[in-house]
Amino acid sequence: MTDLSHTPTPSWRSLLAHLKSPWGVIVLILLAVALLDPANLWATVEFAARALAHTAQYIVFAVLLLSFLKATGAEVMVARAFEGRETRMIVAAALFGGLAPFCSCEVIPFVAGLLALGAPLSAVMAFWLASPLIDPPTLLITAGALGWPFAIGKAVFAVALGLFGGFIVRGLMAKGAFADPLRPRQSSGCCGCGGPKLNGKPHWAFWQEPARRTIFATEFRQNALFLLKWLALAYVLEALLVHYVPADLIAQVVGGTGVVPIVIAAVVGMPAYLNSYVAPPLLAGLMDQGMSAGAAMAFMIAGAVSSVPAMAAVWSLVKPRVFATYLGLGLIGAVLSGLLFQMV
Asked: Are 287 and 256 in contact (CB under 8 A)?
């Protein structure tokens, strides 16, 4: 008689984890379409495949750029933005916030190190607000889905929001606010990467060192798979949006050029967070259905500021009043950005 006591059985938790992954969600969506509306299955797949193929050139360039930045150790250049006078630090932090090649895990120990070294909260807030909004891959993905004017506009507003928040916090600190902003115990990070180094210098000719070549190859593979799975999901969702959501409904809620649609888009965008790789394709579909450009910009900025990694980075290091200030500045900045983009 065969002993079955050690026969491995599939774990429900493992199965659920696979189903909750982007690939699992894509399969479930396509199965649902095949069962409920089989005539539209091929149209959905074709729409997503064509959109993904159009964005492929941006994905390749973005992955190459991000891998290069990681392999060379360019993050030390960002650390140097937090040196010197406070005004210069705020400006530099807002600028570098959009260029930082950090994953959401690395931001926490990076900022913890800066605060421990005495970097002012105003400059850190500028970096925190700008960093989740734009980075090299996000810029290229946004350009591929929404066009370069929208991508450049988002990059400009990312820096502007960083400056806005940094100088607001500086003014509040001058009046005695945030005298003790840090939590008693700081998080050491959400994974084992330990965050980027705060000293040293970049090694631009990374191919001369085997260890850096390994970093480049690893980063290229991981980021390529990451972008591919999230963009594939984004374009499948966009296909559903275009085929099943009435354009009139979207136009009524967030269409037009008034202030109200932009405010609604910002308020809805905060809790309904979509990461910076999923949001552009979906917003492209919404804009085709009648969403105004200003509302789309407000939705994207509010959603990025309220992302789980961005909020976790702030919450893990600072006290609730600083966290509330971060969210408030993000919401106000999203509305102002939407209004300005609508005017332009």
From this structure: no
Residue 334 forms part of a structural domain: yes
Say if residues 276 and 138 touch (Cβ distance below 8 Å).
Answer: yes
Q: Which domain holds residue 304?
A: 41-179+199-343
For the entire predicted model, the pTM comes to 0.69
**137-156 CB burial, b ≥16 within 10 A, e <16:** bbbbbbbbbbeeebbebbbb
Residue 274 domain-assigned? yes
In a domain, 28, yes or no: no
The count of structural domains within the chain is 1
C-alpha 32/C-alpha 38 separation (Å) is: 9
pLDDT in tens, the chain (344 residues): 445 555 444 566 665 666 667 888 889 999 999 999 998 899 989 988 888 887 787 778 778 877 887 788 776 666 666 777 888 889 888 888 776 655 545 566 666 667 766 778 898 889 888 887 887 778 888 888 888 999 999 999 999 999 999 999 999 988 888 877 777 654 444 444 445 555 567 788 888 888 888 988 998 888 788 778 877 887 888 788 777 876 666 666 666 667 888 888 888 777 655 667 778 887 888 888 788 889 889 988 988 887 666 676 677 777 888 888 988 999 999 999 999 998 87
Residue 193 within any structural domain of the chain: no
